[in-house]
Amino acid sequence: MYRYQRARLLGAAATATIALSVQSGTVTAQESPEAVKQMPPVVVQQGAKKQAAKKIARKKIQSLDTQSANQDAQPSPPQSAPLLESPETDAMDGVGSKGLALPMTTTRLSGKAIQSQLPNTSDTAQLLTKVPGVSVFTAGGISSLPVINGLNDDRVKVLVNGMVISPACTNHMNPPLSYIDPSQVAVADVIAGVTPVSKGGDSLGGTIVVESRPPEFADVGEGVHTSGSVSAFYRSNGDGIATSAHAEAATRNVSVGYTGSWTKSDDYARGDDGPIVRSTLYQAYNHALTLGIRNGADLFIFEGIYASVPYQGFVNQRMDMVDNDAWLFNARSLTHYDWGTLDVRAFYHNTKHRMDMLADKAGEMPMNADGADLGYSIKAEIPLTTADILRVGNEFHRETLNDWWPPVAGMAPMMGPDTFVDINHGTRERLGTFAEWEHRWDSAWSTLLGVRNDMVWMDTGDVQGYSSMYAADAAAFNARSHERTDANFDVTALTRFEPTMSETYEIGYARKTRSPNLYERYAWSTGNMAADMIGWYGDANGYVGNLDLKPEVGNTVSFTAGWHDRDRRIWDVKVTPYYTYVEDYIDANFLKSQSAMGGMGGMAMPSTEFVTLQFANHDAQLYGVNVSGSVALWESDRYGQFGLSGIIGYVNGENLDTGDTLYHMMPLNAQLTLNHRRGNWSNAVQLTLVNDKDDVNALRHEPTTPGYALVDLRSSYQLQNVRFDFGISNVFDKLYYPPLGGVDWADYAAEGKTGIISPVPGQGRSFNAGVTVTF
Ligand SMILES: [Cu+2]
Fold first, then answer.
1. Exposed, middle or buried, 770 (CB in 10 Å: 0-12/13-18/19+)?
2. Pick from 86, 114, 46, 231: nearest CA to 722
3. Quick one: which of 489, 488, 394, 492 has its CA closest to 438?
4. Are strands 669-678 and 542-544 parallel, antiparallel or unpaired?
5. Disulfide: which of 130, 538, 550, 666 matches 316 by Cβ 3.0-4.6 Å?
6. What is the pLDDT of residue 608?
7. What is the distance in A from the centroid of ligand 1 to the CA of 54?
8. Cβ atoms < 10 Å from Cβ of 476
9. What is the pLDDT of residue 222?
10. Is 84 helix (H, G, I), strand (E, B) or coil?
């Protein structure tokens, strides 16, 4: 039964997917278990279904992740299914039926699911809002922070081409996904909740694995293969422009590629024909060079990226990004042996981050951060038998950070005469080691069991303030030892049960641990102005670090039930309820109200709305449910194909010590998309529904937001090698407030800091259009 099923799935997918066998690169051997065992994790795929045959010959390597042989043997739902080609269902199809290294809670975005979003956004995190369980909280225009099942930002592990990228900013203005343009993303896998230890470590909520376009190689007898594409998009709201280009030249074994992007937007306008939302402008460049070398099925990739953000407004922060210059280098070698595959990666990242205030905030306060990341990972996947896979790995990550604020002339003693040293050569090193065993018991049952240790070492030097005003806090901080060591242990256990070809169930447990970041432990000043600079919450409150913070430990139990037609062509539904108990959740305690501060420079708060908080451990619980599904509705030669897909998310979080609602919990929300496709036309109508948010975090004075419904339209037409995109987002120009948008500090500051601060309004209507030429 099992073998039959696998062969059948392979057959169905063979039109679009080929897996290279170790020596020969042929498809045929896959039907025997031995061949499956040998099969390397390089899935040669898939390319544009438009140019299917040619592309297949070209052996485009689509997924470079070290998935299990088992998983490669069971490619995603049949690629030939017509309605699964539509952008939304592509996002919906998940990869849940494959090996347990990708649990059922995994959603894979690739190809059209990404392409269809390019007209709408230059923010890579926004792409992920199609994924069940994922929401984003508002930051800069290209720097949203992802949340998975209510666990946000650093609690989500994000790997960009295998790199761990630490935000080098007191406001986390430069999160990992801000270093890659959406147009450069080839595949994004999101694992929500229970995550295999081979993909976890130092995180609680889940893992986002983003891979950029893999190298392409020439076909036999083709000589030098060249390819490329150019695209440009315009968005009427904010006068946004996004361009990208790709060019590649390759022989059979060597490939050199360039990918670049440039994007820019002015402040966007809110809905209801309202005024602009201040401090939402941005501009960004990204250039990436890739070298790929292939030797049989083995692959070596080297990539260098230069990412520059000349400016980016932050509507819900007191500061803006006025320059962010980053270099990123990563190398990967993927080799196949008799015993299995070895995946080795190494990376280096360096960011020079500069903050100050753009025009709206009318003030001056330079803040600088220089951050670097350095690391490697070595992962081996060993198929022990046809039913057993062992994965072992070791990885290291070292973050260094300097964060200092130069004095402002004439502003002593508040902001001078000395340099404020926030983090003085902070270091955070993590050494992770894991072992994971996946076993298939019979055609229905399989299990995954993994254990993991992460050692985390942190330290930082002594600090000083702008003046003697800050001396007491600095002295207290300097008097203590800053060295901290955490020994973290994670466990993941997953069981999958596939009793029939139309149902799959999975139950998982994970204990996951995250150590505090450098700011959570080492931000030291209790002065309101200095504390107000710390925090990535968009709440305009001040935060003070805590040397006594412990790592937070999440215990998650989740269950997924998936039902679908036998071929996964017509319909599927997936439901995942989950519960997480977090021991020592890093929340905050009230330190003081800021009402006493009035009148200092551009920074002060005349209002009692804002508070200074200190990071603190509390016990917390989160629970919720994610639902996703799709159905092929109707098909006719004359009118084309119609399909419907949707996701629903609900999460609830509570601080068990105080009874307060956790900050930034997304209210009940749903997305419903009607897809249509006829020949080269594809169209979509998307309805987004978000409930009132009245369950808010009292400690941070989190604003309530009313419920809303938004309608988006998308349309594309493929004319040979030219693709045209059209779309209208927020068709009815609805004025709305994203529940995780934070407070509109930019407006509040510009209007004289009086009255009640408003939540940040979302984008009003935008007409989006673009063209992509491939050659
Ligand atoms: Cu910053």
1. buried
2. 231
3. 492
4. unpaired
5. 538
6. 59
7. 46
8. 12
9. 87
10. helix
Of 620, 468, 476, the C-alpha closest to 545 is 476
Q: How far is the CA of 327 from the centre of ligand 1 (A)?
A: 17
Question: Length of the chain in residues, anyone?
Answer: 775
Do the Cβ atoms of 208 and 136 come closer than 8 Å?
A: no
Tell me the pLDDT of the chain averaged across its residues. Answer: 87
Q: Which residue has the tokens 């922060």?
A: 317
Q: What single DSSP character describes residue 154?
A: G
Q: What is the pLDDT of residues 238-249, one digit of tens each?
A: 999 999 999 999
- C-alpha 318 – ligand 1 centre gap (Å): 10
Q: Both tokens of residue 379?
A: 């992962």
What's the pLDDT at 755?
Answer: 82
Q: Which residues contact 113 (CB under 8 A, 6 or more apart)?
A: 87, 88, 90, 91, 130
Six token digits for residue 515: 């150590």
pLDDT at 384 over 50: yes
Residues with Cβ within 8 Å of 79's Cβ and at least 6 positions away in sequence, in order, are: 12, 13, 15, 16, 17, 46, 49
Q: Residue 11 CB: number of other CB atoms within 10 A?
A: 12
Asked if residues 404 and 420 have their Cβ atoms less than 8 Å apart, the reply is: yes
Please return the burial class of 189, using the count of CB atoms within 10 Å of its CB with bins 0-12, 13-18 and 19+.
buried
Residues 485-510 have pLDDT tens digits of 999 999 999 999 999 999 999 999 99
Report helix, strand or coil for 125.
helix
Query: What is residue 693's DSSP assignment?
Result: B
* Residue 153 DSSP one-character state: G
Coil, strand, or helix at residue 54?
helix
Q: How far is the CA of 323 from the centre of ligand 1 (A)?
A: 9
Distance (angstroms) between ligand 1 centre and the Cα of 359 equals 16
Q: Measure the CA–CA gap between 677 and 680, rounded to whole angstroms.
A: 7
Q: What is the pTM of this model?
A: 0.88
273 within 8 A of 101, measured Cβ to Cβ:
no
Ligand 1 geometric centre to CA of 58 (Å): 43
Six token digits for residue 101: 């290294």
Determine the pLDDT at residue 252. 94
